[in-house]
Amino acid sequence: MQSCHSILLTEDEYGFINRCFAELLYGASAVAMKHVLGDETSQAEELKQLLSSRSASNFPALSKPSWRVIYNVIHAAIYALGDNELETLTGFELNQAINTNLKITSQLWGTYEGGNY
Question: Which residues of 39-60 are buried (b: 16+ CB within 10 A; e: fewer)?
Fold first, then answer.
């Protein structure tokens, strides 16, 4: 059984993650994001269902593979949307998006780059 991990997210970060998932599932950039995600697209769709009824204060503890999918959804949003559209559609500037992913990697894998996941 995989252990689950909690990451303390702000309401803004939680909202940003949800908006990235919404863009993946319903947005104009969905095709590009799914291309970046590849095989993880179906896992991302399942995670969206789990997260849709939650708030940052009751965000579920997730396994490392689930957190990796969230990390990759954010990554896909950054690449598919670019700087200007990212801010317009998610409300987060590029540096805020990157910092959210750094928060995930540093707390789960203990590194800021080249995480061993």
Answer: ebbebbeebbeebeeeeeeebe
